[in-house]
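FORM 7B: Structural annotation worksheet

SECTION A. Query
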Amino acid sequence: MKVLLFLVGIVLLIAIEIARVYYIMPFPGSQVEEMIDVAYFLHQYIWVIRVIGIAMIAYPAFIYIVGTNPYIKWTVAALLGFWVIVFYAFNFRFLADKMFYQPESVVLLVASENKVSDQQLVIGVVLEGKAKAYPIEIIGYHHQVRDTLAGKELMVTYCTVCRTGRVFSPEVDGKPETFRLVGMDHYNAMFEDATTHSWWRQVSGEAITGPSKGKKLNEIPSEQMTLRAWLERYPNSTILQPDPKFKDRYEVLEKYDEGKMTGRLEGRDSLSWKDKSWVVGVPMGLFAKAYDWNELIHAKAINDQIAGKPIVVAIEKDSATFHVWLSIVQNDTLQFQVADSLKLTDTKYGSRWNWKGECEEGKFVGSKLTPVQSYQEFWHSWKTFHPNTEQYQNKK
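SECTION B. Predicted structure
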C-alpha cells in the first residue's frame, strides 16, 4: 500500500507541474486542442493538487528514506530529486513571464535622437495629433509595453509566433488593469490580469477563461510600417528605444522584420497560403478577408470588396509598408493602381494620391481616403482567429 501511495503521489506531483505549463506553452502538440479551460483549472488549483500529492508521499517517503534497504532508499531519493528538478524547471525556467520580461526603462526619443534603424518595422499610434512608434523587434520580445499618449494609457502588444501587433486601452470595467504574460493559446500570446486572474488573448483583447470571460479590451487603431515611412507621415513622432538590459534578447529577433528567421515558431514560409505565410488580414464587422502577401507585392494595389464595401489594399515601394482604404470618394467607387511605385492613381479619372491617402492631383484634390484597420500576420493565426475569413484569389 505504501508503495502504491508513494508512486501515485510522485507521478501526480511530476505530471501536474508539466501539464500546467505544457498546455500554455509551444511544446509539440500542446497548441492544437481546446485545452485552455483545463490549463486554467490546473493553474487555479495547483497548490491544492500539490498538497494532496505531498500528503500522499510524505509518510511513505519518510519510512523508505530512514529504512535500511539502500536500493529503496536511493530510488525514493532519486524520484524526489527528479520532482524537485521538474518543479524548478516548470516554475522558474519555462513559464512565459520568466522567459520574457517587461522593459525596466521605457524611453521614447524624437527622430533626431533616435537610435533605431529607420528600416525597422514599427507599430504606430496616433491620438489627438500626437504620434508614437514602437519597433516590432523590441515589443516582440517583451510582448507588451505600457505607455501613455495624449493622456491615455496604452498597452502595446505583439506576438511573434502569430505576427500580430495590437494596441489596447488597458482598462477593464472602466478601471486601469495590470497584465502579465502567462503563456499562449493556439500559439497566440496570452495575458493574465492582476485583479481577477482571467486570461486574455493578445490577438483580440478578449478574456477567454476566468471570471472576466467574454469581456474585451478596447482596441486603439494602429498601423504597421517601416520607421522611415512612419516619420515621413509624422516627423514629430517619438520612437521607443531598446532597453540596454535586453540587448542580447533583441538581437535574437534582428531578422524577424524581414521574415528571415529560421525555426518552426517565428520563421516564414515564402510560399503562399501556408501556415507560416504572410497575409494582410482585414476585419470588417462580422466579415473578414485575407490577402496573400506575395500577391500584394506583385500587384502593388488590389481592388476588392468586403461585405459589399469597396476597398484598396496597397503596398509602398519598400515592399513592407502597406495600407487598406475604403475606395469610395464623393459617392464614387474608384479603382486604383500604383503608377510609378510612388503614387496611387485611380483608373477612372486619373487622379493621383499620395501614401497618406490624400488626393494631390486631379478631380478629387483635397479629398482623403478613409483608412481601414488591417494587420499583417501569419496565415495560421488569421484563419484560426477569423474562422469565417475569405481568401482573396486573383481572378485574372
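SECTION C. Observations
The longest strand covers residues 152-159. The two ends are 74 Å apart (CA to CA).

SECTION D. Sign-off
Analyst initials: ____
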